[in-house]
Fold each of these.
Amino acid sequence: MENAMEAPRKLAKHAPPTPYQLLMRNDLPSGLFLTVLAIVTVLVPILHLVVPEGNVLHLSSYSVTLIGKYMCYALLAVAVDLIWGYCGILSLGHTAFFALGGYAMGMYLMRQIGTRGVYADPVLPDFMVFLNWKELPWFWQGMDQFWFAMIMVVFIPGLLAYVFGWLAFRSRVTGVYLSIITQALTYALLLAFFRNEMGFGGNNGLTDFKDLLGMDLKQPGVRIALFVATGVCLGFGYFACRYVVRSRFGRVVQAIRDAESRARFIGYRVENYKLWLFTFSAMLAGLAGALYVPQVGIINPGEFAPINSIEVVIWVAVGGRGTLYGAVVGAVLVNYAKTVLTDALPDVWLYALGALFVVVTLFLPKGIVGVLPDLKAKIDTLRLQRARRAR
Amino acid sequence: MSAPGLRGGIERFGNTVGRVLNRGGSAAAPRLDLSHDIILYLEGITVSFDGFRALNNLSLYVEAGELRCIIGPNGAGKTTMMDVITGKTRPDLGSAWFGQTVDLLTLTEPEIAEVGIGRKFQKPTVFSEHSVFENLELAMAGNKSVWRMLFAKMTPEQHLRIDEVLETIGLKDHRAARAGSLSHGQKQWLEIGMLLMQDPALLLVDEPVAGMTPQETERTAELLVSLAGKHSVVVVEHDMNFVRSIARTVTVLHQGSVLAEGSMEQVQNDPKVIEVYLGDGGH
Ligand SMILES: Nc1ncnc2c1ncn2[C@@H]1O[C@H](COP(=O)(O)OP(=O)(O)O)[C@@H](O)[C@H]1O
Ligand SMILES: [Mg+2]
């Protein structure tokens, strides 16, 4: 009798969940975030293009670009959270991948300038003419093709991450040592990209972009297209990360975070897991950088500055690591604060950031998104106590 | 990087690429060969830590299907021996073979796990942030390559297998509990369950009943006895009553080498053993 009752329920439990269920089960905040993102991605173009200027609801091009920038930062933060929050790999060099993606996009945009540069050379960007170069270096070949450049946007950061990770993880470099060599990596790239002979515009970097796919970057329509593309990439990037952490691969990765050698003794090749996660994360960072550059109009070696990578980690810590949506919240809030503060009190920002980090580490170990569940738990216990007393 | 290091690196890189291309099929792992009925050969193993010899010319043979107990005072080198077998520690001297064909000293930890050696640690180490169910899922035997895991789906058979193990280890009602929230004894059981999921040919079990109640100890003994035959089991334990209840052959380790070996009775009456144990404060 009992068995007969039990059987159908058991079957239902074993029925494979749909991909959406798999991704969003028990994860209200992620659903919420994706909903908000969808609304923003639809609403911002309307407020910018349809609502006439002068109307209170009109969104200025400055605001559109600003929100677009925040979304790029959010994607970068999600990439960092994926490796730090879920695998314990504290990369303090992730903006290196962001910047490389940005440079790949910048190279494409430079080639789009064509004869409209100061020196009007049909092939060579201005800075190369200025350096008296006669030919395009080999690594600039093909970058005039959009599809090729877009592949490079994820391929170059991915390749660097793969080689770097292969060396580091196979030698079992972990913890603080790994963080230090990631800082060294981004610093080395900073120095290299500063040099004119590298062929990336040296100190000035790449700028004065004109077109994207033959369309004027200053046109509102193009600006909005870039904005929408950023929203879509953030959404898909988030989804992909969600899939990764919800897969069995994701559970292995978290197991590695919590007990690395145990995972080895069960038979997991820990270095491969770290390597692929790290590479994927770097590719996402590269994508974020590529979306960032046409919106801000410049990429220069300053993006490689070690402090930038540390800032990203602070965003994630402030938002709450190991949740993905926490990274988004942290990236947006901290950067909004930065926008406001650097406007009002430019000298104070770094101190404020440092103080924020200390406060969060001491008082909010789970970040901002950890506050609500904690509060709810506290209220629940209070209620329980009161109910008991009443009885 | 030295030349052999570099060559090893290139080889591993090739292996990685190969593994990726064939979606993670394990690269020709040697098979376990039990044609001589011996599953584990340790010969002349010496391990030094800063000049101190934790293992000193240790030789030990374990038969296929055997349940072997290893006893010995604290610091005798029992855990270190398991570290050598599982690839965590490399010996200075000696050889370690798994069956006739597998040279354990050339394999990494995951490779050793893959050829069929599972281990339960002295200090229970479960994945504390994962649920009990997920811990068992992670330990499940099978291809453990990155690509497989990325697209892995649990089959109904695997689900049933996990349910079965949950039943065996008495954690059925805790399947969704965070492993970190379990009691010490339950963690021990969960780790044994993970071993069962791995389904290895040789189980190394380091102090399984530490922190267990007498009833739990008894059930552990029953379980280990039931595993022998199909698996080979090596148990390290301090608890003499426990050892007496399960052991057929006992090996006494002292200062990094074998002091005595035989049935519990033989060993207990061995004057050398008596001296060591009395000298150690008596167990
Ligand atoms: N990593 C290590 N470094 C230095 N000494 C160690 C290390 N591991 C074990 N030892 C020493 O080796 C001896 C054997 O240890 P162990 O194998 O843990 O003994 P047992 O498990 O039999 O109690 C002990 O004296 C211990 O202090
Ligand atoms: Mg020990």
Note: The first strand of chain B starts at residue 38 and ends at 49.
Amino acid sequence: MITIKELEKWFDQLHVLKGIDLTVNPSEVVVIIGASGSGKSTLLRCINFLEEFQKGEIVIEGKVINQQDEKMINEMRSRVGMVFQHFNLFPHMSVLQNVIEGPIQVKGMAQEEAVKMGRCYLDEVGLLDKEDAYPSMLSGGQKQRVAIARALAMEPLAILFDEPTSALDPELVGEVLSVMKNLARDGMTMVIVTHEMGFAREVADRVVYMDEGLIVEQGTPQQVFDSPQKERTQSFLSRVR
Amino acid sequence: MTYDFKALMDFFPYFLPAAWLTIVVSFFGIVLGVVLGLLTAFARISSKPVFNLPARFYIFVIRGTPLLLQILFLYYSLRGIFNFEAMTSAIVALGVHNGAYIAEIFRGAIQSIAVGQMEAARSLGMTYRKAILRIVLPQAFKRAIPSLGNQFIIALKDSSLASAITIKELLLKAQQLGASNFKMMEMLTIAAFFYLFYTSIFTWLFHKIEVKLSASGNA
Ligand SMILES: Nc1ncnc2c1ncn2[C@@H]1O[C@H](COP(=O)(O)OP(=O)(O)O)[C@@H](O)[C@H]1O
Ligand SMILES: [Mg+2]
């Protein structure tokens, strides 16, 4: 469904992605792990075209996305959701407005229908009672759950998560991970960058280890966590355990 | 020399037309300033030199020269070219002057909105235009309100400089009456009263708006 071919990205002189090949299949949960600075966020941001890359291509549902084609990018973005480390909720809108903004403004959905659907997704993340609250009144865990509902409301093919629990107090991590586990169970296609190794082991269909802009090793959680083949993977895992 | 308190009451009604003129000049000057300011702010932020260079130059000139000079300059040039009357010149001058300052206020407010807001909007598939209109600007306006209120008060007081091009607003009225009845202090006091009245209304109004906005959601 999402195919990344020989992706290379520079920030000026800094070679950040050095040739990434990755395919994400429908209903697959791909978890990307790796040290800070290895290029995980940049990779996700390239998939959402928030960063421009210099080489390679990204194919979504058989279509090669042209980075210069604004219309094509917007269309693609409306079908691939993104959840950010710092939530990025719209502070001037209520929880429900945050969730229905995309469907109404991007898909042209009628207000009434969007509200009905928005409530559905708020219910799914357990925040139906907060629909009139503003983001500033929510805990970090609640904010991230609203952000997930906002992504879900676009009825995306896939959702990209960039360290969705890294900005949360430890006691709030669980509620967000549990929502994500439900999504995985329901067959949502997800690409998740995380440092939560227990969670990765539990929900990932495939674990991808990145280092210095390259995919070093990938496989099932058992393969990568229990018997990593590459020395770099072994030393990374021994450090995070 | 004695201060004639009774004259304050006696001459008060003579100031009403001037008080109205001050409102008209200030109001249209501010409206023009906001429109110019918003356009200039976007031009200034733009990465394209065709937009940002003229915006920079405009702000550079206006902020680097006195308002009185700008008023006189526009008065003489517009009168020559378009046959503008003094009133129009005064409004244009005040608008152009405030536009530069308001542009900087808007620019600061827009740039203070976290890039994550734009990214979140774009990642939903919103166009740049929509993201600006629906996500960035409402937050930027809110952030700009205290500075805007301040600038509006300055604009209101600055409208007194229109007296230099024969606009019979409060200050010129006071000077003319004072020169003929020899009660200059009293006449200036009446003008001051009107200015204080107006600026108090502005201050109160903006305070109300701030309170209302901070009640609905976060800052
Ligand atoms: N906007 C940017 N400009 C310049 N360098 C950047 C930018 N964003 C990230 N980088 C650099 O790219 C590298 C990869 O960053 P990132 O993708 O954020 O890594 P990760 O998410 O794995 O921690 C780092 O060296 C980082 O400093
Ligand atoms: Mg990162």
Note: The pocket of magnesium ion (ligand 2) is lined by residues A 40-41, 163 (CB under 6 Å).
Amino acid sequence: MLKAVGLAKYFGGIRAVDHVDIEVDKGEIVGLIGPNGSGKTTFINVVAGVYKPDDGKVYFDGDDITGLDPWDVYRKGLVRSFQVPRLFKGMLVFENVMVAHRAQKGENPLLAPFRGLWGKQEEDLAQISLGLLEEAQLSHVRLNWATELSGGQMKLVEMSRALASEPKMLLLDEPAAGVAPKLARSIFDYIVRLNRERGITFLIVEHRLDILFDYVERVLVMSNGKLIYDGNPKDVYEDEKVIEAYLGERA
Amino acid sequence: MMFEQLYTMIPFITTFLTFYAVYLMLSLSLNLEYGYGGIPNFGHVFFESIGAYVAGNLTANLLNWIVAARGGICAYPASHARMMFAPLHPIWIVGMFVFSIIIAALVGGIFGYLASYPALRLKEDFLAITLIFIGEIGRVVVRNERSIACGLVGLTGVPNPFIWLRDPNLMFIAYTVLAILFAAGSYMIIKRFVNSPFGRLLKSVRDDDLVAMTLGKHVPKARAWALILGSSVAAVAGVIKVFFAQGVFADDYVPLITFVVLSMVILGGMANNKGVLLGALVMTALDFMISPSFFTVFGVTLQLNVAYIKYIITGVVIIAILLFRPQGLISERPVETPGLDIAKRAGVMKPTAGLEIPAERDEADS
Amino acid sequence: MDLILPVLNSITLGSLFTLMALGLTLTFSVTRIVNFAHAELVAIGGYVTAVVTNYIGLSIYESLVAAFVASAILALAMDELAFKPLYKRGSPTLFLLVASIGIDLVVRFSLFLTADATGNIIIQTKVPIQPLMPLGKTYLTTFQVVVIPLTLAVVVVLHALFHYTKVGKALRAMADNEDLARVSGIKIYTLRRLAWMLVGGTAGLAGGLWSIYLVIDPDFGWNSLLRIFAASILGGFTSFWGTVIGGYIIGFAENLGIATLNTWFGVSTAYAPLISFAIIVAVFLIKPSGFAGIDLSSLLAKLRGLHKNLEPEAEG
Ligand SMILES: Nc1ncnc2c1ncn2[C@@H]1O[C@H](COP(=O)(O)OP(=O)(O)OP(=O)(O)O)[C@@H](O)[C@H]1O
Ligand SMILES: [Mg+2]
């Protein structure tokens, strides 16, 4: 599904992502962990087209998507969320979700003034958005401004927004960060459901390993921009490189 | 008695309403660019001036050609000949007006598209600087280049399209109605544009362009369209003003005008067209009340140059609104689409068995 | 073409532009505000100098001190009354820019109002400029002998203050990360006030000197703003030495440059402002994103293939 080959991104002297090879198969839920500053977010950014890679290739669903603009990456069905929730502040919760739908006719400025041309589609998309908000138990706040939500709710809106785009694969950057443990687990339950029912592939960056490891069968570990582990979450605590990476961080 | 008084006030009232119409078109279009699209086009007056130059130059050249005037568009005899010709040939001058509107809207749109080039590359503060100074450079060029609008002297002899009505009062009334129709039309059109998924797209780009990109929005295109539409409306406003003043003067298009328009948008409420209606009305009224001619209407002659006070108040309004009511008189509203209606109508839905979310979500923030 | 006069003019005006722009650079370095009202700090300085010299009869040096103080107070007032409250509320930077436009209008037209009411719409500080020594067909004057070293002295002081003192270090920390500065116990608002006073003071001084050299009106600050921005932007917007280079480039471009174009290609001198603008656009297009990163020296170094960084302090 997603394949990064020798992917690299530098910031000045910092090798944020240093020739990483990662492959995620269709239908998988994979965890991506690593100490702070190990390059996880940067990896997502490069894959999603926010940054252009300094080296390497990215393939998605068989296509080469290296260096594509973010909107083209989205078009292929690869969508990401943000570590710190970034909702559109001047919009309602409902509008935040509505924005993300793909191929909206009314977004074309030449059609925009003519309601008849996009009204029907808009109504259908509204039903889908409402359904997504309901699944995330956000129905009651749908007409609130995005700024009026709690941190946990914002995380959920980010998820719903990403889902509205009908993605084939989601790159979630800490979907449960700053969220109460119980809600964090419900979020992961939701992810598993989406994976089963809609066949969405997930790559999830998460710091809360206790929760993450209950939900993924495969985990990738990054450290200093390099991929140092790829395998079973059970064995990760025994891996020397991983221990060193995490201990090194604490020291 | 009453009627007579009203009659003497016709020039004043028509001028006020025409200016309101022009300011309205300018502030609505700036609101589209800045309020909705987040593009600080503080060189807005430049796009107005483009419409003005197009209208003035085209009309003057064409009429000159018809009357076979000599000495170019700037020569006084030619200007005079144009003003003599127009009252006898309504079709020509009305036609020139319509033609000017169309061409100005197109050219304005093209310049708007060109302005999107820096708009895609610069951080917003630097974009604001660039656009303000682009406008200034435009003015410097025109005031030194006789062929566009006769340089410093300005281009005169651009006849009012209703000049054939002969009675000046009638002419001004007719033109004012026309100007108001244009302003109302702009309001309706812009309203239709923004109350659509396109309006939502603009707001998303304004609020967070990076997120908008990752949600599939072609941000450069969205920005370009906001500038094309906004500049096009601004250029039409420029045409309206030229045919009212029956001339074009490069030095009328200083950044100050943009700032007055900006104060209308900020006062009314960004991303709110109704608010802008109100903001433009307040600021235009202020503009008229603090003017020597207004005081002379009441038989008062002033020693001070009151124009200065007008701009001081404009500045104070900008600062005060930012400090005390940043959302403006009327705050931002959601984008009105059929989808929003559905969301409003939908009742409070019962939690389903899907996600089990703890009741007190807010603990999550800790 | 006689070169000496345009060169001398270029250097003199370059110094004045530099002095005007230093405050803008300082503002942006410390507060990240793009301040359009900077023009009025210059204008007020010019008027204070002219009025104090012409009407009160103090010496030019006392007048310049008065200009420094007046503009420093004005700058402080701008911040306390508008920028700081907005900033504390977390307003977006664009709001601060818009506010600065509002401030500019208030100050500029208050100045117009007063100047008009007192018959001083046009004024020049009455100080005789003495010729010191002949230079070709022209003279080196007392004005140049004061202005050029003074500008350089101000730059040296600002640079030293910024880079070699505790206060400067704190200011830089503040520019980089306000929270960090707060945590590490730096008195942020005291520092901020100091910065604004320096901003206003240097701008006022520049305006005062300008009013000796040329006739001024209440619009002269605003009319110089394009060049002020150009000088500062060209210098990287955060580097004092960069600003000096920027200021002199503008000075030369608008005098020697336009004189040359005029002589050889018949370009009207009225187009002088286009040069500043072209410079701004060129800088933006060469390096639109990393603003603080554009410093001329490294750019030149790059062009020459030299990797010698003349301005090590510039923040990347
Ligand atoms: N835009 C940028 N400019 C410069 N350096 C950056 C930038 N983004 C990230 N970095 C650097 O790249 C490295 C990797 O950062 P990244 O955010 O990818 O780490 P991360 O694994 O997501 O960390 P965390 O767990 O804290 O989110 C860090 O050293 C960071 O400072
Ligand atoms: Mg991260």
Note: The interface with chain C takes residues 12 of chain A (CB under 8 Å).
